[in-house]
Amino acid sequence: MWGKLLGTCFGFMFGRWVGAILGFWLGHMFDKSLKQNFDKVGGFQGFFSGDDLHQRQALFFSSCFAVMGHIAKSNGRVSEIHIQAASVFMDEMGLHGENRQEAQNAFRAGKSADFQLKEAISDFKDVFARRYDLLQLFLEIQIQMAFSDGHLAAQEKQLLQKVSQYLGISATHFQFILKRYQAEFSFRQQRAQEQSQQNGQQRSHYQQKQPPSNEGTFSKSQALAVLGLGNDATEKDIKRAYRKLMAQHHPDKLVSQGLPEHMMEVAKRKSQDIQSAYEFLKKAS
């Protein structure tokens, strides 16, 4: 406990939000190691190996949940839907025990009235400035939180635009990312509905001896939108967009750049959506 407290205080004194977050993480690791043997993990030398990978992962983790909490409270109060969405997100990441508690603490910090969004994002960008794919994934996660209730409120969109601006993402590209996520959200819902219908038809087939229908419920234009393309896209455009998006969301690459391993599922799910849309387009051509 004392390690976390002192680490956070000293970190904030020397590095504002980024210092506080890193100080909290180092304090947590120090407290945790005291229960074992601090020397066995290499002392403080262990924290600064691998281009400070662990520090970057800790910063991404804490900043992500803090900004999620701030966006969830954009309407003045955090709805049960947003709380449930954050909880489901933690479940998908497999967060339990101390890791889940740290995520909840960061989420609550983001909800506080004195949370400085611009300062927090600026500190985050300073660390990840040369890792554009991670900056974009960070924004996509915040968009996912805003869409947790199925629609995007005006206040939420304004906050997302600020986050995008502070990350150094242009207004044009923000609209592109937002539109692509909306298509991804719709595509994912329709694929789930299609799967549910097929399962129901298969059960009916066994009961009534009738062949199930394989007719899809989503369109080529929706699959193109998942890849960020319009209806006039050529086969070459589709392949180029697919390869670019798959490279941007490759889980192993993102983890090596600072994405927490717990968040690999986010990148995997996005890769699966991109892959599904591409496969659908190949069959439709």
From TrEMBL:
It is a single-pass type III membrane protein. One of its GO terms (cellular component) is plasma membrane. It holds the Pfam family DnaJ. Gene3D superfamilies: DnaJ domain, TerB-like. Residues 189-217 are annotated as: Disordered. It comes from the Bacteria. The keyword Cell membrane applies. Homodimer. This is Co-chaperone protein DjlA. It comes from Pseudoalteromonas amylolytica.
